[in-house]
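Batch job 17 of 40 flagged for manual review because the log was empty.
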Amino acid sequence: MIIDCHGHYTTAPKALETWRNQQIAGIKDFAVMPKVSDLKISDDALRESIETNQLRLMRERGSDLTLFSPRASFMAHHIGDFHVSSSWAAICNELCYRVSQLFPDHFVPVAMLPQSPGVDPATCIPELEKCVKEFGNVGINLNPDPSGGHWTSPPLSDKAWFPIYEKMVEYDIPAMIHVSTSCNHAFHTTGAHYLNADTTAFMQCLTSDLFKEFPTLKFLIPHGGGAVPYHWGRFRGLAQELKKPLLQDHLLNNIFFDTCVYHQPGIDLLNTVIPVKNVLFASEMIGAVRGIDPETGNYYDDTKRYIEASKILSDADRHQIYEGNARRVFPRVDALLTAKNQQAFFGVGFESEAKQT
């Protein structure tokens, strides 16, 4: 099985964007603020948006299951206040849940949080709990910079984040550390802000003792870890100067990286520097880089090709990257797949017994 741990609903029906634009307009003129109930998206519209896009490409490229969260650039936590973010997060999370119900063999929901600059992260807990308990979400996306490129929030090691971490530990879910749109014109959203944030999050963890406080907390740093693998020697040296343990003990029991690196040398570097046990397959399609690489004739984000072409990975390594690591880092995914396998093996009898218990 190939599990893509990094998928966003970038192809949601146009009605979602229309509603969001109306909500943004309502920030200045409350008379035009839409109600949540004003958004009408049918199951057929959801099916079409998935079948002609993500699901089509999954079948063409050979992946099986996508961990599916709201569009990252649309989270835009810097827009409006907490109430605006709360309504927006609830809508986007419900759509991803509905997709997972329409295509249960191919999509599993991951939640965005209703973060807002300067607002206590603990205010996100009700949405987190709802998504886990009611929607079956297997993880969350956590934005370390809700300000949209101005970095006004405390570092991830600060106690302000601890209520979120406590819930993550309680529910045994990881967080993908993922920023949203940059409203700072010095930082291009996908070419700079995303990669800056990946690197910054890693360094915030390196300089702290966060994982002593939360030894089972798990972070997935996307986009191949930003600059981390390329500058691994720098980070090892900085940890040494700060009298921290070796990185494999200090961070690599808790931090993991995905394969959203869109060329062969980058994937090879990632898998040379970072232990295989810390790398999870991902493509982020259909996402920031959608074009065809003229050097290969293939789509940049067809990341399975890079894993298959790697000369440094064994078949056992590929299994870990494709499936094993995702099931370990996302225990709820493992439980879901195990239950499905048991149902397939035992059939109706197992299902009936499960209902009785």
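Reviewer: the log was empty due to a logging misconfiguration, but the result itself is present. The chain has one domain: 3-10+38-356. Unflagging and moving on to job 18.
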